[in-house]
Amino acid sequence: MRSPFQPSQWQSYHFACDSNDLEHYQALLSDEISRLNMTATVLGKTGRFPLSLYKSPALDVQLPSILVCAGFHGDEAAGPWGVLKWLMAQDTDQFAGINLSVLPLVCPSGFRKGQQFNRQGQDAFIGYAWQVGQKPLDTELSEEGRILTKHNGLLRALGQDGVLCCSEDISSDTAYLSSYEPSRTPGPFTLQLQAKLGQHFIAHTLAKGQDCSAAGSQFNCFDTGFTAVMVRSGARLGATLFTPGQSAFDARIQATVSLVDTFVGGYLAAG
Length: 271
Fold this sequence. Notes:
The chain is an alpha/beta fold. The protein contains eight helices and ten strands. It has an eight-stranded mixed β-sheet, sandwiched between helices. It has a two-stranded antiparallel ribbon with strand order 1-2. A hairpin with a 2-residue loop joins strand 3 and strand 4.
């Protein structure tokens, strides 16, 4: 079994840097946030690392509100770089159709080291419990998780119509998806993301009968992960995509771009 502290690093030819080049990433991200006139909010800090949220320039209650996240695990670097590359291809016109919020890099301390866990050896993706009457699992909740939990009301509002988390499976050579819809069987939301993932990599088919113990793509398998808890606490739809870490790094970045585009585009088309 791979250690969560084992560093991983790839070369991005598109960005001309190493996958864990935090300073270069933050500089490029800052340029794009400024160009798109998005609102930046520092939710908190983990040591000297800020955990930042970015929102549409002006939120409109008449529009769908969606949240795109990445970088809960520091060694899953294609997610943050993919979200950045997607932002680089956008213009401000899209904000006329959606309220878009982005958490592009939840665990910067892990990202900088290229390791799965944060600087305190914690998993930033698990341990959440935002349902009414439940408290976070303090023994599992990371320092990043505590920051997000402090702002859970805001995040629920910003992701009330949909949440997409861009993750990776570093040890896998196939892609898969974990999705959530208010139905007994996968609907258009899940099937569109699954099909798009399959255009980039060999992808697991969805487990039948919501078998949450099955390896690969899963449907409505609720746990204490961020996406599942966002849905449990009110988000209408949610998904976590896993690109295969054994594939080329830039290919994983491009697949993330494509999946984010499909996710956001679905709401723009519905409007």
